[in-house]
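Chapter summary example.
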Amino acid sequence: GSATKRIVTHRLLAVLVSMAVMLTVISVFFLDMGQVYMSSYISGVEAIGILWAVYAFALALGSFIAHYFYRHVWVAVVLASLPVVGMMIFDHSWAISLIFVQAVGANILLNQIETRVQEHTPSSVRATILSVISAFGRFVAIPVSIYLGWLIEHAGIRVGLWVPTVAAAAIIVLSMAIAQSLYTKDTAHNMSL
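The structure predicted for these 193 residues follows.
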């Protein structure tokens, strides 16, 4: 409908939706396979349960403090993306701690994406656009979850970690595209004054 058309034709909204979808890909890995990842370094079910509770706290913390990052979205991009890359690079038990940093960053970034979407859409289609974004995430989560399960079963958790790592790299590239676009517009505006 009109919400999807607006997303496709408005470059900033299209990039923000793409970033939200990439966050979904990353979150599918952690929500579906995070305990599997942890169990490759820690053998105790009780310890994994405690770590999973810390993960839930980190998600809540990200949502709670997100509004402090309105003018510092780049920090959220870094916190949501680089820990995933770090987990791919460093095959060590301490890399589990990066899951918690990523959880905080992901919820901050998702909040900031939703805030920008609300700012750049008229009120008449705002709720519909947010619903479409949510639906995109759900539609993507289904095949990603199935694929990750199959990939990890056949190739292992380290190979499966490539999926969220590619999504994290995409978030970094997309955020740089937004920053470049905004910088170019600001520069042109300042030169015309």
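To summarize the output: DSSP finds eight helices and no strands in the chain.
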